[in-house]
Amino acid sequence: MVSVRCVIMFLFFWFLLLLPQLTYSKSQPCLSSCGKITNIRYPFRLKQDPEHCGNNRYELDCVNNVTRLSLYDGYYLVESINYNNYTIRVVDPNIHPTDCSSLPRFFLSQNNFTYYNDSKQRYYAKENNSYQYLLNRWPYKYTEYPNPDYPESESSMPVIYMKCTSPPSKVVEKYYADTASCLDQHMTYAIVGDPQFAILEPQCRVKSIALTSFLWNTGASNFYYGDVIENISYIDIHKALQYGFEISWMQASCPCDECFFNDTIGHIQCTRFICDSRFCGLGFWTNLLDILINYLFGIYEGLRELTGFKKLMIFDPRNSIIDSSIRSSIFIGKYVIPGIVARFMIGLILFLALLIYTYRRRHSSIYENIEDFLQGNTLMPIRYSYKEIKQMTKNFKIKLGEGGYGDVYRGKLISGPFVAIKMLKIKSNANGQDFISEVATIGRIYHSNVVRLIGFCVEGLKRALVYEYMPNGSLDKYIFKKEEVISLTYNQIHEISLGIARGISYLHQGCDMQILHFDIKPHNILLDENFNPKVSDFGLAKLYPIDNSIVTLTAARGTIGYMAPELFYQNIGRISHKADVYSFGMLLIEMASRRRNLNPHAEHSSQLYFPFWIYEQLVKNREKEIEDFIMEEFNDVLKKMFMIALWCIQLKPVDRPSMSKVVEMLEGDIANIEMPPKPILYPRETTQENLDSETDIGSTSYVEEIESNSLLKYSAS
Q: Where, in this chain's numbering, is ATP bound (predicted)?
């Protein structure tokens, strides 16, 4: 029983080994002829040959006893077929031997073909049907070796026809062959070879490209092998076009490891070496590379077999090391890799399902928190549906602006007044507290210098805040120079600053809860039709009891350039309502000077931080030096604003006045204001505690909005 099985297995493997030879021999007997091309055989065939003859991709056509080869969209006349070095020579059908005015009909260059590089080109020949495998690739290759049967032939070179508007320069004219001797076309030239960019003239354009494999004789029996041929006549170029060009079909069926074309004897030879300059010779690394290559190819074979494709390889019994690597890698490609991929896909699906579940649960929790807050508090603002919000904005037609927290659109209430509707962005780390904070803060405020919250929308993941509409927009476009914007007088600037101070003072002391804004800046000050200022955007605001003068934050918040230093340095004082005082001071300087406080292009170090320069001018009483941005009759008003601002931006919170004191100073006379100390940017000593404290800062951009990742819990009401 065992012997019968052995015989069957032996016959089976013997059949597999003979199958490529049987397939190859099946295609040999077919011979045909057409005109001067005789004994046409595999892989070529004529269209009228039986179906089993040759390869369909190498089909020739016999028309009027002339053999033709189709390439791309054209056809070429076959001059010869050399089965020893696997080349076929063809000629453009429009080239006539006795008429040098005939031009190539079809456009063809080396780029239409792939390359074979002599003996450095390797072929993996352990295929089930190596002929078919190789011929199923692009059928023709660009030759790079001489034809031994034709001493005049050489590797293919392009003939480039150039149409020029003026003759080429003296430097490069030796490369340009004038076609005037044959063609009735003014300033048409031909270049033979692969030209470098330097010899191409700007007044010339490529008209067409043809190929030739003619071996050029440059005189003194020396053949030219350079990039571009010099000083050649167009008559010789036409002779080269008559000769045609060679292309190769490289086919190989090697019984050993690899094979290459030996250009000395004109045949393919087998080798056990890897014919590459980087890996010459035998040894450990060569064998290791062989095994690695075969492992990769075996894995590819296994994947093909798994997907229903036929194998491309058969095993060589004379190389047990490589065959074992191929067999094991086929198993890996057929079973191991699909198993790994399947596990990865299952894990990926489960991971995505977990992400979706977590996302929905988080946002469901946020929505529940907001609903609980809204139901537990009696609020003045009206609650709108998302459908009503879309109707107010006419499907978000007019966009007023955008910021880090959402986009603002203009809307209109049914009763007639315009409103500003802010659609809040839902951030991945949000927990709904920002929305609760803004609704809870503005919902209980009614002051002439604080923007009024008319209503809100909470519907699933959609959140919107409906404010009273401020037709003059934000303050920043009026204090910083912009085209087509109304210029405010300094009396108006002073009145606006007073209104802002009153609004902030009301937030600190006018409500039953102390409200800290934490984001006072020009962009968050809105102006109504009469340029009355209103403090807006309470996304970072916090509520605290009136008697609680000390605030604990888990992260810095605000906008760089307006943030109080105690938000960064814990050793200068605790966070309190004085943080808003600092922000107002920075805002007041920008309003009075109509410029940014930080000037990276300043010529002097004292001007880099603008408050330093303002302080120096006030001390030296050099008003004339600041006349470029101050009118003389308003010096007292602006000096008062600058002095108040310098008091507000003192480094230590204890040295800053309260907002009620700021209102008093703005309303009073400059003579009653003492000269403030020189402001300091940062403390001279910083402790490690300061460096390690958490600050939620993404960059040092002047207008970047900073929002904390973790928000304060509300203090007891």
A: 422
d(CA 454, CA 446): 11
Note whether residue 218 is domain-resident.
Answer: yes
Same domain, 485 and 586: yes
Start-to-end CA distance of the chain, whole Å, equals: 95
Is 422 part of any known ligand binding site? yes
- The span from the CA of 200 to the CA of 160, in Å, is 11
Q: Which of 259-268, 291-300, 458-467, 493-502 has the lowest mean pLDDT?
A: 259-268
- Is 201 found in the same domain as 170? yes
Tell me how far apart the alpha carbons of residues 455 and 421 are, in angstroms, rounded to a whole number.
Answer: 9
238 and 257 fall within a common domain: yes
Q: Flag the least confident range among 214-218, 255-259, 653-657.
A: 255-259
43: preceding bond cis by omega (within 30 degrees): yes
164 and 286 in a single domain? The answer is: no
Angular region, 406: left φ>0, alpha ψ -120 to 50, beta rest: left
Tally of structural domains, the chain: 4
pLDDT tens for 70-100 read 988 889 999 999 888 778 899 999 999 888 8
Q: Which residues are catalytic?
A: 519
If asked whether residues 52 and 137 sit together in one domain, one would say yes
Is the domain of 437 the same as that of 524? Answer: no
Q: Are residues 247 and 394 in the same domain?
A: no
The answer to whether 685 touches 562, Cβ cutoff 8 Å, is no
Q: What is the rounded CA–CA span in Å between residue 137 and residue 143? A: 16
pLDDT tens by residue, 487-544: 888 889 999 999 999 999 999 988 878 889 899 999 999 999 999 999 988 878 887 8
